[in-house]
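Troubleshooting log. The previous structure file for this entry was overwritten by mistake, so regenerating from the original sequence record. Sequence copied from the archived sheet and checked twice against the printout by T.R.
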Amino acid sequence: MNSTTAGTLFSIPGLDGGTVETQAPAPVPEPTPLGLRPAAARIVITDAPDMNDTERRPLAFLVVTCPFCDAQHIHTAGHPGALRLCLRRSRCVGRPAGAYFFPEVQL
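Regenerated output below.
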């Protein structure tokens, strides 16, 4: 089957004489602040040594159950014997308008 008509397979706007229409990006609404809520937290000590520590002590992490997305967020808490459990404020990664704090930590 022979065909002598040439057709356009595809078109690139702006390169083949067509016009390019640009759209302004849709405005992103500001997230509604969800406030500051308490979150349950516990300390978890790892088995692996901290390679940046000269004494090679294991790392401690603060595992927080988020009151906004029901996921667990992990924060560093220092080393056993030198835990950093000061009051902190953190924000939820899944819901950035929400911030939480740890009123009590389970060891």
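The chain has a mean pLDDT of 76. Archived copy saved in two places this time.
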